[in-house]
Design goal:
mainly alpha; flat
Length: 223
């Protein structure tokens, strides 16, 4: 209507990628809506299956933990805009030739395998509290990539794109839903401080140990 031309709309390859993106976004939107009501086993299993299909198609997820073992020709970078394939191939080749950087990723894989074994042993013994105290994988992986030299900036860009690709907005949407319920016309004396406190109470996963807290308090004695 405004007379603006979009040549991409005549490009079949671009349209195919656009349609694929719309499909993935549609699935993520459905997931966000369902997750606002809470996690369910069937929901997560279904999304895990679809996520596995995407992982198999691109070959990107093995690259995150095993860049020194990946075949560059089997990695599909078309889903990450602005990445030079030539620079990516050169950096991967340089990484594979560096014993220092290869040893870092081998060490990362060793730590991840150790964590997996520890979780399995603790789960078998039903030690859930100890399991929560283990270092999460999502801290180990970014730490290793952040330690890379700036000469591997293309690889770092790809890793960041993959690690944040499926970030969900359901938590943000949940917070807005809670805020609408808290901030109503019936609460005429609500302040920023009280609103902040109410939001924390609604969104936190922290569960206080009431028994332990009560033991530290002085009991009220009758007069």
């Amino acid at each position: 209507m405004k007379g603006v031309k979009h040549p991409e709309l005549d490009n079949t390859d671009w349209l195919l990628e656009f349609h694929y993106l719309v499909d993935i976004t549609g699935h993520l939107n459905q997931l966000n809506v369902k997750m606002q009501a809470g996690f369910t086993s069937n929901l997560l299993q279904s999304f895990k299956a679809r996520f596995g299909e995407f992982r198999a198609r691109t070959g990107l997820f093995k690259f995150i933990t095993h860049p020194h073992e990946c075949a560059v020709d089997k990695i599909d970078l078309t889903c990450i805009p602005g990445v030079s394939i030539g620079d990516f191939e050169l950096e991967v080749a340089d990484l594979k030739a560096s014993d220092m950087w290869m040893s870092k990723f081998k060490s990362l894989n060793g730590e991840l395998e150790s964590l997996t074994r520890q979780r399995a042993e603790l789960a078998r013994e039903h030690k859930w509290t100890e399991m929560k105290n283990l270092q999460p994988e999502d801290q180990l992986i970014p730490k290793t990539w952040n330690e890379l030299s700036v000469t591997y900036h293309t690889m770092q860009r790809v890793s960041i794109a993959v690690l944040t690709m499926f970030g969900s907005t359901y938590a943000c949407e949940q917070s807005f839903s809670h805020m609408r319920n808290i901030k109503t016309n019936l609460r005429s004396r609500s302040t920023d401080g009280s609103l902040n406190a109410c939001m924390k109470l609604n969104l936190t996963t922290y569960e206080p140990d009431y028994k332990a807290i009560s033991k530290t308090m002085q009991h009220q004695k009758s007069h």
